[in-house]
């Protein structure tokens, strides 16, 4: 792949994470205030945000492939963790869509 194509991929991943991370921070903050029993989900999602910040750093330092794999794996695993931590909450399945 050409250098410009690689640079474009890094910009795309970085842009996705720059939008995703603050949005998730806002949403989990609101849910933590509104819903009791949200703490286990908050811990799982907060941990995932730390991993996503690491993936952002990897992408910015040119390690696109590892950053992209980490982003995809973290997003998928977090969705399943939310459902496992909240099996009785019907709204938790919204994380899987």
Please describe the biggest sheet, giving its number of strands, its sense, and whether it closes into a barrel.
Answer: none
Q: How many beta-strand runs?
A: 0
SSE order, as H and E?
Answer: HHH
* Shape assignment: elongated
Q: How would you state the average pLDDT, rounded? A: 86
What's the number of structural domains?
1
* Rg for CA atoms: 15 Å
Seen as an oligomer or otherwise, the chain set is single chain
Strand proportion, as a percent range, falls in under 5%
How far from one another are the termini? 32 Å
Q: Stretches where pLDDT falls below 50 for ≥5 residues?
A: none
The helicity comes to over 70%
Number of helices: 3
Topology:
Elements: H1 3-34, H2 39-60, H3 64-85
Can you offer a commentary on this structure?
This protein has 97 residues and is an all-alpha fold. The chain has one domain (3-96). It is 78% helix and 0% strand. The protein contains 3 helices and no strands. Helix 1 (3-34) runs parallel beside helix 3 (64-85) and helix 2 (39-60) runs antiparallel to helix 3. The model has no long low-confidence stretch (mean pLDDT 86).
Which features would summarize this protein structure in a list?
97 residues; mainly alpha
Summarize the structure.
The chain has one domain.
